[in-house]
Predict the structure.
Amino acid sequence: MIPAPLVLVGGPLVIASVVYLVRRLSAIAALLSASTALAVAWLAGSVPTSAGASTLSGWVAGGPWVVLGRTLEVTSGVQAPLIAISLVTAVLLLLAVRLQPGGIFFPGLLAWLGVAAAVLVTQTFTFRVLLVEVAVGLTTMLLQGTRFGSTRGAWRFFLFSTMAMPLLLVASWQIDFQTANPAQVELLDPAVLLLTLGFTIYLSAAPFHLWMAPAATEAETVSQVVALSLFPMLTLSVIVQAFERYPWFASSTTPYQWFTFVGILTAALGTVLAFHARNFGRISSYSLMVDTGAVLLLLGTATQLGLICAWALLLSRAVSLVVWAAGLCVIRRRTQSDQVDTATSVGWDLRLATAVLVLGGLSLAGFPLTPGFAARWMALGLLARAQPSTALLLLLGTASSAAGVLYAARVLLALGPHSAEPAPAERWQWVNTVALLLVIAGAVLLSLYPNPLLSAAAGTSGTATYFP
Amino acid sequence: MPGLPTLPELLQPLAFLGEQPAAVATLLTALIMIIIEDWRWSLFALAAQYILAGWLLTNALETQVAALKVLVGMMICLVLYITARQIDSSRGTAQACGGKPRFARMGLPFRLLIGLLTSIVVLYVTSNGTVRLPVVPEHVNLAAVGLMTMGLLALGLNEEPLAAGMGLLTAITGFELFYHSLEQAVTVIGFVVALDFLIATVTAYLTVAHHWTPEDAERGKLT
């Protein structure tokens, strides 16, 4: 029998090495990678959490697995986040066939999934932090991809995320030391501070958001989703695990006060900047700042409903970003630029892509009748009860982000001569149309029936009994 | 036939350094990386920094484990050297690290001034006990705080991946001097060392992406 953690971690890594060999055959690489991601999602959901039980006709065993004295285990709290991350990964891998130049994306993202699984199943906090750093390295490489020239977005992401590692490692040592010496309770206060600061950096709260705009402007559209959506999901899982494991951390008021403070700062900054954004990348990144602020504010409420809303926002963000990326990719190919003004009237030629882009952008903003609305509405409702002023700020953020997207729509659909002519070699393929139609259909479905997203969020957040 | 020397015997020649001078020398290597733009000097300083940091780590870790850090440090320098050479050959210039426009704004006098001022501040705050890391001895405190501060300064001065990456590695080395005084589990040390190498790999990757053009990539078969 093979231990389940070994399959979940090793499986994607082994297949990634195979995918690397066939990476130039995009369709095969994507299918192989996406099937593996789906298999991870299925296995994460079906593997028994109790020791001695097994699945897959007895081939895969549940329960803990000890490596070098460290325990790896698929617990009930791990299953839902891993399923969510694997499913988003699978969608990205499939989408990348049409929208992303090959290169290292397929094997890189699959390896990322293996590392993410390792982060989730590792029970030792020190190793979890070290593994997150490995995920950061892979995310950086995916963000940069095979593009040449500016490396600002990828480098800043790497730098900021790496800066969190020392803080969390020292906090981890303090926790371990205090566990061994229960009398040294004075070590817990600095540990709480370090954990909070480290997690704030991972969540890209202001002022650690500076990588987002360059990354959204420069990186390949599908790669952005990894850094802007999958990585925050992984981070939130680590935060939740820290809350579960360390009751003194969950019961302290410091993290919640801090999350609320930086949440307000981040959302306010995003609100101000989004209104003036005249660049596709900046429009999405400032909308995401508002979204990040909302996630932090929800964590700051220290309630289970807040946690569910935070997960719902991140899951909706994944959907919105996928839709946005699909539209933006097509428009960028035409304009060869990220400036909105270079795309004047292009929308009349690329109607479908424009529709997808506007739908994705409005969804990122949390606009009504889009997939992002349900989660944003829930968040607004909760914050309105807890802190009405923050709900108002979030509402302003939604309006500001939507204004940026509507400006882009106005330029794209302006009457007049096209500012970007199609390249002679450019040829529209029916597969692209089908892909965009599928994206629109999925987005409309989730707009009308957001229950799958919300119930996934409820399942992912588990039973949060640790809040004060 | 005389037996092979043991690791402590091999390290014996470094004993002349003493602990405090070794810590100051470590700070000096970081200062060189701040002041001098040429990547060759910076890499030489980084290599020296790894040797000195390894020497300082022998206080807290087994000699063999500290030697592992030095060994990986040398591998990191090798990776960065190969990367910088590759950029050099494609650009035909010795300025792979840094970049003219940035350097034009922050010239040698500025770097010298800010580097020296930071070093003086570090020496002052560590010697009078204003900044005192727990557990570590005084000389390691100086080296750790010095490397972290100078590394962060290098990060602030550069956004070119090779120069900034060396700054990041310097800051991380400073942190490790402190962290390994606290945490001495071999598996953790091994993982942290592997992460150092990962940082170097990402730095190399971004350096190539920053400097190369698609034509360079075609010639070098990067993709």
In short: Chain A touches chain B at residues 68-70, 103, 126-127, 130, 133-134, 137, 140-141, 144, 146-152, 154-155, 158-159, 162, 165-166, 169-170, 173, 177 (CB under 8 Å). Chain A is about 75% helix and 5% strand. Chain A has two domains: 1-123, 124-461.
